[in-house]
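Structure (tokenized):
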């Protein structure tokens, strides 16, 4: 019988570790070597830290994985039956590993002190103050974790940047670690996460690639190899790409920028389709058949949302400005400008179609999450659409199958301020649509494809409007029922 463990001995970051990690899956369990299970700690129990570490714990039952966070409520939820993150398949993975080799805790220092590998998976939001406000990444959480590691690291560790960060952040972490007397020697690696919400478990199970950047020194290579051997438990070796630190850090921002750019490109074309009677889905299909373009990420929509695209493209813009490349910065900023415009355009089309006034009209907004199969609302297009309609004095009724009512109200109206009385939240799509002058589909939840639209139509004042911001419904069928139905780019 073979034992899937890595040796945990002093100096294991060195050549010894490199040699042993090659042996990771071939050590006989009955050998007399004093093997102690590897310990992994992940700082940040969010949408990335939680699912990513759960998958490592599932695939490597011999590695002890502890996910820590300062947020007590979040940790309590990870330890409960109602996880703080909704992801298809996540409950099952957590249930399998939790209490066995997967733990959630608020003891940040204790878990870091014991760990061999420390993943840093804290939030890196767009800065809202000072230099770079609205563009640069706010690195205060990264720095705070780096200082905590420096304080408590008395044994060598591999520090892994899992958060998305600006290129060259690893050197900041290295500098902080070097500045604390008594900190053990640590290697810093970049290992950006490419999972998408809603498909996180499938993405983690079968990633297109795992990217690991490190220093091209013997110690750096050894650290890369150790981390690669963790993923190597289930990811084919040819999918584990290794690069220098800076290429890895930059690749994450560039990957998200390219993906966002495709959506803004097709959304820009959707406006031209509306002006010319071309159909954006037909255009996307026609161009996507070209293998050089490919079919993915060409779905026109009300605009992209999520915690990553806008933040990361803005970060790229800021970096280009910082490095004296204003033309490059302007090019990428266009991706965000088109997205903002697309969100405004959708709300404006509703107002225009409803005879230029939605004042006191009931508008049902179906979907609030930034995409289907997640409860995440960060940067969701629904927030902008609701705000624009409320500004026009519409009575907005939102329904989303996974987002709680208080979250919807706080996102639209702001936290700690009195809610707008024109905004309400319904418990079902039917309740939201009853008596509505118009329906706006903003998230592509599957259940919106199969609603009984005849029944809904019967309960609406006429003319009854439907605006499909995701092109998931059959507009011809809706028109046959009597709806004035409009899609995006059609
Ligand atoms: P999140 O906000 O859901 O979670 C971050 C967690 O870090 C929070 O729970 C917060 O309390 C915790 N935290 C912050 N400072 C801490 C500290 N000093 N000690 C302990 N805990 C601390 O964020 P997320 O969506 O998981 O994203 C994390 C990082 O991963 C970001 O850089 C993001 O850009 C990147 N990323 C996100 C996704 C995604 O789909 N959400 C995908 C790829 C990469
Ligand atoms: C994205 C990246 O895909 C992922 O690799 C990275 O790790 C984090 O950022 P995420 O934001 O979770 O993932 O979801 P994604 O599927 O990329 O969707 C982002 C937004 O774009 C959503 O609002 C989605 O509805 C929208 N979108 C996506 C479109 O409008 N059209 C498309 O064709 C694809």
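Design, position by position:
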């Amino acid at each position: 019988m073979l034992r899937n463990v890595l040796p945990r001995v002093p100096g294991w970051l060195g050549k010894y570790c490199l040699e042993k990690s090659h042996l990771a899956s071939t050590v006989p369990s009955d050998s007399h070597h004093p093997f102690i299970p590897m310990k992994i700690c992940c700082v940040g129990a969010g949408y990335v830290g939680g699912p990513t570490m759960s998958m490592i714990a599932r695939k490597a039952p011999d590695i002890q994985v502890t996910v820590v966070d300062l947020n007590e409520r979040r940790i309590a939820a990870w330890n409960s039956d109602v996880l703080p993150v909704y992801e298809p398949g996540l409950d099952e993975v957590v249930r399998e590993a939790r209490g066995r080799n997967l733990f959630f805790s608020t003891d940040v220092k204790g878990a870091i002190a014991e760990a061999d590998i420390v993943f840093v998976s804290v939030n890196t939001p767009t800065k809202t103050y000072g230099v770079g406000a609205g563009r640069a990444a706010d690195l205060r959480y990264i720095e705070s974790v780096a200082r905590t590691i420096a304080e408590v690291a008395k044994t060598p560790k591999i520090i892994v940047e899992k958060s998305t960060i600006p290129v060259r952040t690893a050197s900041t972490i290295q500098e902080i670690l070097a500045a604390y007397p008594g900190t053990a020697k640590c290697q810093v690696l970049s290992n950006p996460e490419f999972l998408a919400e809603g498909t996180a478990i499938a993405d983690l199970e079968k990633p297109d690639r795992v990217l690991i950047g490190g220093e091209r020194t013997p110690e750096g290579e050894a650290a890369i190899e150790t981390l690669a051997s963790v993923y190597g438990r289930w990811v084919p070796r040819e999918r584990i790409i290794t690069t220098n630190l800076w290429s890895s850090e930059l690749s994450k921002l560039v990957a998200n920028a390219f993906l966002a750019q495709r959506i803004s490109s097709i959304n820009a074309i959707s406006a031209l389709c509306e002006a010319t009677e071309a159909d954006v889905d037909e255009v996307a299909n026609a161009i996507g058949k070209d293998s050089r373009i490919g079919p993915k990420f060409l779905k026109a929509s009300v605009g992209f949302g999520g915690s990553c695209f806008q933040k990361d493209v803005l970060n790229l813009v800021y970096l280009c400005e910082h490095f004296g490349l204003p033309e490059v910065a302007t090019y990428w900023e266009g991706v965000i400008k088109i997205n903002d415009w697309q969100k405004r355009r959708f709300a404006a089309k509703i107002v225009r179609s409803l005879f230029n006034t939605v004042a006191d009209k009931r508008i049902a907004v179906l979907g609030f999450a930034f995409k289907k199969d997640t409860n995440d609302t960060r940067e969701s297009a629904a927030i902008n659409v609701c705000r624009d309609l409320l500004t026009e004095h519409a009575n907005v009724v939102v329904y989303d199958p996974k987002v709680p009512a208080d979250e919807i109200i706080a996102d639209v109206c702001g936290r700690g301020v009195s809610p707008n009385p024109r905004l309400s939240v319904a418990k079902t799509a039917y309740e939201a649509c009853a008596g509505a002058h118009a329906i706006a589909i903003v998230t592509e939840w599957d259940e919106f494809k199969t609603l009984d639209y005849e029944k809904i139509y019967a309960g609406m004042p006429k003319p009854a409007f439907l605006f499909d911001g995701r092109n998931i419904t059959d507009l011809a069928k809706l028109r046959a029922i009597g709806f004035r139905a409009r899609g995006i780019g059609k």
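Reviewer-requested clarification: Confidence is low (pLDDT under 50) at residues 1-30. Residues 193-197, 256, 259, 263, 297-299, 301, 304-306, 308-309, 370-371 surround uridine-5'-diphosphate-xylopyranose (ligand 2) (CB under 6 Å).
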